Amino acid sequence: MGILAWIILGLVAGILAKLILPGDDPGGFIITIIIGIVGGVIGGYIGTYLGWGTVTGFNLPSIGLAILGAIVLLIGYRIVAGGKHI
């Protein structure tokens, strides 16, 4: 998967994760892309560990895993930041 595909997947996953889990998180276009890309990596690890597959391209299962990873990342951020409600 090329860098442009990772950026687009990251943007989509980051936006959808923030819509699913709204809150007072750091935001902005670049941060949302980074949340989605890191979420894709986390989702890939989770998917591989659970036997669901991995993030392999711009397809529905990969987007789902990236969103799952981004949600995990946002929850982790809120726990570490403290004072935020999950």
TrEMBL record:
<dbReference type="GO" id="GO:0005886">
    <property type="term" value="C:plasma membrane"/>
</dbReference>
<feature type="transmembrane region" description="Helical">
    <location>
        <begin position="58"/>
        <end position="80"/>
    </location>
</feature>
<keyword id="KW-0472">Membrane</keyword>
<keyword id="KW-0812">Transmembrane</keyword>
<dbReference type="InterPro" id="IPR007341">
    <property type="entry name" value="Transgly_assoc"/>
</dbReference>
<keyword id="KW-1133">Transmembrane helix</keyword>
<keyword id="KW-1003">Cell membrane</keyword>
<comment type="similarity">
    <text>Belongs to the UPF0410 family.</text>
</comment>
<feature type="transmembrane region" description="Helical">
    <location>
        <begin position="27"/>
        <end position="46"/>
    </location>
</feature>
<protein>
    <submittedName>
        <fullName>Putative membrane protein</fullName>
    </submittedName>
</protein>
<dbReference type="Pfam" id="PF04226">
    <property type="entry name" value="Transgly_assoc"/>
</dbReference>
